[in-house]
User: What shape does this take?
Amino acid sequence: QVQLVESGGDLVQPGGSLRLSCTASGVVVSRFAMGWYRQAPGKQRELVARIYSSGGTTYTGSVKGRFTISRDNAANTVYLQMNSLKAEDTAVYYCWLAWEKDYWGQGTQVTVSS
Assistant: This one.
């Protein structure tokens, strides 16, 4: 059974940084595409970043140069380093894995506010 558990969400001031973690069980993360999505109140869930089994990455335009997705195969964990945070980054962030179907974590709240 695949499980994704996120952590690291918090309240942070504009310009600050956070690192989100997603630890997987029941699956080897290096074999599959994984990523982070986010959903702000009243908006649709949107892709933030993906990392592929090859190690390649993609980012949505609004986070390029500020966010970095990475993977620790030994820890079976995917990270999202978020720098220069803005108010518009406020959302619930979800970990995602693509295998037989889409798997999702429970979400972690990121709030950027002064």
